[in-house]
Specification:
By secondary structure, the protein is α+β, with helices and mostly antiparallel strands. Helix content is 41%, strand content 25%. Strands 1-8-3-6 form a 4-stranded antiparallel β-sheet. The protein has a 4-stranded antiparallel β-sheet with strand order 2-7-4-5, with no helix packed on it. It comes from Cannabis sativa.
């Protein structure tokens, strides 16, 4: 993924924290965000009002909400979010980055030439998640260092 696109995405990420046993996304609600887990464990599962339940464990470097990538390519406004088909519930305390659907939509609209031809593969998405975590760590460390230097001049 081009560096400038990654930087745009990083500018819109928000750190979110979910306590143990909290719903992050509910099945049947509008899917209005992607999450990139940096610490903790969550469960993604579907009920479908049937006997079978599908469960997936989400941990550090995992993400959820990838349906928004395709949605953002085919929609021009945020009036019709896709409806979540899966519950995501924290198992432990979860720290994550959240990318809101409207921010993703604006990034895609303003850089459509890139997204028109480049939907990331699963491997690239994992690499992006790791890169986002590393970039955020570097940014925080750089910010803390410069703040320390200003205070001790």
């Amino acid at each position: 993924m081009e560096r400038e696109i990654l930087e745009l995405i990083c500018e819109h990420l928000k750190v979110v924290i979910y306590t143990e046993s909290s719903y992050i996304i509910r099945e049947g609600d509008p899917l209005d965000r992607m999450i990139f887990i940096t610490h903790g464990t969550a469960w993604a599962y579907t009920n479908n009002n049937s006997d079978s339940v599908s469960t997936r464990r989400l941990k550090k470097c995992d993400y959820f909400g990838e349906e928004l990538l395709e949605w953002s390519r085919t929609h021009t406004n945020i009036t019709d979010f896709p409806i979540g088909t899966t519950n995501v519930k924290s198992h432990t305390k979860v720290e994550a980055f959240s990318l809101m659907a409207n921010d993703l939509l604006n990034i895609v609209k303003n850089n459509y030439r890139f997204f028109r031809r480049n939907i990331p593969t699963n491997q690239q998405r994992c690499e992006i998640s790791v890169q986002l975590e590393n970039d955020d760590h570097d940014h925080v460390q750089s910010h803390q260092t410069s703040k320390y230097q200003r205070l001790h001049k």
